[in-house]
Amino acid sequence: MNAISLNNNERIVFSSIPVLSYDQFMEQNLVLLENDSCHCISYFGFHFDGKIRLVCCIADDTQNSILVSSAVTLKDECLPSFTAHQQAFHAFEREISENMGIGYTDHPWLKPVRYPANRADRKLVIGNYPFYSIDSDELHEVGVGPVHAGVIEPGHFRFICNGEQILHLEIQLGYQHRGIESLFLEKKNLLQKVILAESIAGDTVAGHTTAFVNLWESLCNYKAGKDLQSDRTIALEIERIAVHTGDLAALSNDIAYQPGSAVFGRLRTPLINHFQLWCGNRLAKGLIRPAGTHFPYTGQLADQFLRMLESWEPDFNEMWNVFHKLPGVMGRLEKTGILSNEQVRQIGAVGITARSCNLGRDIRSSHPHDYYSQINHQSVMKRHGDVYSRAQIRREEIRQSLGYLRQLVNDLPVREPYKLLQLQPEPGSFAISLVESWRGEICHCAVTDKNGELMIYKVKDPSFHNWMALALAVRNNEISDFPVCNKSFNLSYCGHDL
After folding, report:
1. Distance between CA 383 and CA 332 in Å, rounded?
2. What whole-number distance in Å separates Cα of residue 133 and Cα of residue 141?
3. Residue 148: its pLDDT value, please?
4. Beta bridge partners of 144
5. pLDDT of residue 419
6. Considering only CA atoms, which of 175, 235, 170 is closest in space to residue 405?
7. Domains of the chain, each with CATH number or no CATH
8. What residues in the chain have per-residue pLDDT under 70?
9. Distance CA 476, CA 356 (A)
10. Which residues contact 256 (CB under 8 A, 6 or more apart)?
11. Residue 146: its pLDDT value, please?
12. Nearby residues of 311 by Cβ (< 8 Å), 6 or more positions away
C-alpha cells in the first residue's frame, strides 16, 4: 500500500504524501473501497507547482486511521474516472472537473455541482443545467424551487412522474456563491477564519467550528486540554439534541400532525436558549475558539442545564410515546422513503442516513475526537432505511446524548489557566479533522505553504455524500411524500454550496 497513514487531527509533512501515477492512484483507492470498513472522506484537486495535485483521503473505520495518497495531472487532461467503478466518488470527481477543468472519459454523470465563481469554465451557467429527461407522452415533469414557499434555502428539485409516482428525482444545487474555501485563504486574521467556520452551515455551528479549531490546533502542534475538549463535546451534544428535536417537529408538520409539531418545536427552544445563557448566542456562535474560549462551561451552567432537563425530558418522552403509537403517524412514516444497505454503501452515505440502513458510519466511535475517546460511544443503528428509521435514530440519539451530557456536566474537568493564543501553523503541513455532527461526518483538511500560510482549505459537509440518498429514497413513492422524505434527511444547502 503506497499511502501514508495518519490519525484524525494529526499533522504530517505535506511532502510525505506519496505521489503515484494516476493509474496506480486510481487502482489503489478503488481497492481500498472494496473493503466495507473504508470510505472516501475527501478527494480534491488544487493548483500546485504549475500542475494539478489530486489528493484522496480514505478512512479505515476498523483501524481508526486515514490513508492519504496523491497524483499529479494537468488542466484539460481527460482521465478515466473512479466513479465508473465506485459511485461514491461521483460528487468528488464532478467537483474536481468543475473547479480544475479536468475531463473524464467514462464518468456517468459529469455535471457541475456548485457553479462557483472560480469554476474553470465560466461558460457553464446554472440556467443551462443539463437535467435528465425522458421523452414520453405518459410521463410528466414537476419542478420545485429554487425559490420555495417556506423558509428554506435555494435548491431545485426536478421530478419525473408517472401520475403521482416518482420515477426519478434530480437535485440541482449551486445557487449560493459565498466562496467559503477561498475566503479561508484570503482572510489572514484568525478570528475571521473562525467566523467563516461558524458560517458554513447555520444549523451546525458547533460541528463545523469544532472541525476548524481541531484542524488549526493540529497544524500548530497544539493539544487542547481536557477542559476545552469537554466544552466542545458538550456543545456538539446540545446541538445534536436541539436539531434532532426540531426535526421531529418538522416531520410532524409535514404529515399534518399538529400536536407533535407544536410540542417538539417548543422543546427545541430551551436547548438553544442554554447556548444563549452560555455564550450569548442561541446557535453557539462565539463559543468555540482555537486554544481557548471566552465562555468556559461552569458549574452554575451545569446546574441550570440539569434543572431544565427535569421538565424537558418527561415532556419529550410523553410526546414521543404518543407520536410513534398513532396509526396515522406510522402510516406516513413506515415504509416511506426506503433506502437499502447496498444503496448507502454504493453512494458512500454517512451519518443518520447510513446508520438507518445498518451501516455504522460514526466518527465518534471510529475516529474519536475531543471527549468521545472517554465516552466509549456505541452507534444507534436501524435496519429498514425508511423515514421511521431515521426518526427513531433521532429519538434514541437524543436519549443517548442526554446520558453523555449528564456525565459531562456532572464531572467537569479542572479548568487550566490560559488565555486565547495566536497560534501559527507549521510550514509545509497537511492535516485533516473529522467531526461527527448531528447530521453526520464533517471533514476539514488543509495544506500550508513554506511560510505556514494556508495554501488549500477543503470543507466537506455530510450533505455532500447524502443528497444522492434523497434522490434514491423517493423513487416509487408518491410525490406527496416528498416533503416528509426530504425532512427525514434534513440535508444542508449552504453546507453543499460552499
Report:
1. 18
2. 8
3. 75
4. 157
5. 65
6. 235
7. 1-113 (3.30.460.80), 180-462 (1.10.645.10)
8. 149-151, 417-420
9. 19
10. none
11. 87
12. none
